[in-house]
TrEMBL record:
One of its GO terms (molecular function) is aminopeptidase activity. GO terms for biological process: proteolysis. Keywords: Aminopeptidase, Hydrolase, Metal-binding, Protease. This is Exoaminopeptidase. SUPFAM superfamilies: Aminopeptidase/glucanase lid domain, Zn-dependent exopeptidases. Belongs to the peptidase M42 family. Signal peptide: none annotated. The keyword Nucleotide-binding does not apply. The gene is ypdE_2. PANTHER family: AMINOPEPTIDASE, AMINOPEPTIDASE YPDE-RELATED. Its EC number is 3.4.11.-.
Amino acid sequence: MKKRFRHVLLEELKAYSDKIICDGLGSIIFSKIKDESAPNVMICAHMDEVGFMVRSIDKLGMIHLITIGGVKPLAQFVQKVRITTKEGKKIPAVINATYNNGKAENIYADIGAYTEEDVYNLGINVGDMVTYTTSFEEFTLPDRLVGKAFDDRIGCFVMGEVLKELRKENLNCNIHFAATSSEEVGIRGAKTSTQLINPDIVFVIDVACAKNEL
């Protein structure tokens, strides 16, 4: 999913950038250059999202998962997801788990299979990614939206809009817009992007949980 989103960013923002770099972890940096000796300003937001990965498949066709990133415990019960195979095939599923002392355990995905052969015949294997399938929708109240991966693709959107607004500005600095990878598993992409840019100042755009979140 991150690769697809990175391609969308590239197509949307390449016309507004003087220089584009992709690093080894999959982050992409759009730069507006004043002068190589000018101060470097970095604005960053992460592209990756929370989700799951297939850990094992049992004889009854249940697909056991591990979490990737900070998946909230209550978001691991009776949720619609999509399993993406290595060939790119997308298989709908429902995840569930057992609840133990406020924690989700034994997370699994159910595709309606009866045997492990049913699962393997669809191309599903250990290591396949599993993501939520929440559709984008506007609520009745104004300026209220729901969708998947707003953490932090909404930040990437904001960053892109800033790049567009600054396209004709004569700035006294180089400004670098970094859409980073691997935030959910240890802010790895931000670290490598920072090494590439060597910024004098950094602005990070991210989301936060509501104070009344369960």
